[in-house]
Amino acid sequence: MSSIDTLIDHYLNHLITEKGLSRNTIESYYRDLVRFTAHLKSRKVDRIEAVDTALVLKHIIALRNDGLSPKSRARHLVSLRGFFKYLLHMNEINSDPTRTIDLPKTTLKLPDVLNVDEVQQLLNAPDLSRPAGMRNAAMLETIYAAGLRVSELIHLKMGNVNLEAGFVRVLGKGAKERIVPIGSHARDRIDDYTSTARPLLLKSRVSEYLFVARAGKPMTRQGFWKLLKGYARSSGLIKKITPHSLRHSFASHLLEGGADLRSVQIMLGHTDISTTQIYTHVARDHLIRIHRRYHPRG
User: Fold this and answer.
1) Would you call 105 a catalytic residue per the annotation?
2) Catalytic status, residue 247
3) Which residues span the domain enclosing 52?
4) In this structure, is residue 38 part of a structural domain?
């Protein structure tokens, strides 16, 4: 029987080579498993086959006593479930001690979601008479039109955009590629930016990135966050707005308009549809309002 540390190394290597998970996800799993290993060592458990359900439950309770939120404890249990599922598959253990343990109850709270009028206010904020304003307008339209993560937006390359067909090719988490449609507004903004403003910003430099900042380098996350805050303030929006707010608004507006959950899942690049389901409360509230307004017994 291999040591617990060796089994963890094998598991993480499996996640990298077979699952293609991102570095941040791997590091998160590693921290959770190291913490669990420390718990086992404190109880003088040095064999993985000696771990039972009671031992895992004691660890989850210890995490709660240490002040971890339900959401953090749920994520921790997900890490352990994946590890023991792998060990069971590799015949390192005979049964999975996490199988009967329920996830801690957690409320997934969304950041403020903008309504359609508020999104319009924000998208109208950039000054289109300036090259930087044209770039920023194209960025705002694109992140909302395609529901992108800010990291996906700033790393878009010229070859990732097909204006004629109306889509962007996105490299998401775990190096997984997806194709997302964009509407006519985003296409027009990108076209105006690339034909007029981008050459002025590059100043004879060459860059493979669509949205360029100084010296032809891609804009940073911090740079986009700063300009977004500025436009939110200048457009008079009171809500706390982050780059992810536009991604949340994208998903919520699609569902509210009648899109099916599976399609939204694909466009967002979610591996698990349960992740997408956190947006359904917005669509549900919309349906409740419609029912109350139009149903004879509403």
Assistant:
1) no
2) yes
3) 4-89
4) yes
Is the residue at 47 inside a domain? yes
pTM: predicted TM-score of the whole model, two decimal places: 0.60
**Based on the domain organization, do 77 and 122 belong to the same domain?**
no
Mean pLDDT over 43-48 rounds to 90
Same domain as 276, residue 141: yes
Residue 100 in domain: no
Of the listed 173, 185, 281, 286, which one is catalytic? 173
Say yes or no: 52 and 133 in one domain: no
User: How many whole angstroms separate alpha carbon 186 and alpha carbon 169?
Assistant: 14
Q: Is the pLDDT of residue 1 over 50?
A: no
19 noted as active-site residue: no
Both 137 and 197 in a single domain? Answer: yes
270 is known as an active-site residue: yes
Clarify whether 244 is annotated catalytic.
Answer: yes
- Phi-psi domain of 295 (left: phi exceeds 0; alpha: psi -120 through 50; beta: other): beta
* Number of independent structural domains in the chain: 2
Residue 82 reports pLDDT greater than 60: yes
What are the structure tokens assigned to 77, written together? 């249990």
Instruction: Tell me how far apart the alpha carbons of residues 251 and 253 are, in angstroms, rounded to a whole number.
Output: 6
Query: Cα–Cα distance between 190 and 196 in angstroms, integer?
Result: 10
Label residue 269 by pLDDT band (50, 70, 90): confident
Q: Are residues 131 and 168 in the same domain?
A: yes
Q: Which of 149, 187, 189, 253 is catalytic?
A: 149
The reply to whether 140 and 76 lie within a common domain is: no
Q: Which of 244, 262, 284, 289 is catalytic?
A: 244
Distance CA 117, CA 120 (A): 5
Q: Among the options 76, 247, 248, 253, which is catalytic? A: 247
| Residue 111 counted as domain residue | no
pLDDT tens, position by position, 118-170: 999 999 999 999 999 999 999 999 999 988 989 999 999 999 999 998 899 98
Tell me the per-residue pLDDT of 158-203, one tens digit each, with 9 for 90 and over: 999 999 988 999 887 777 788 888 989 999 999 999 999 999 999 9
CA 255-261-265 angle, to 5 degrees, is 110
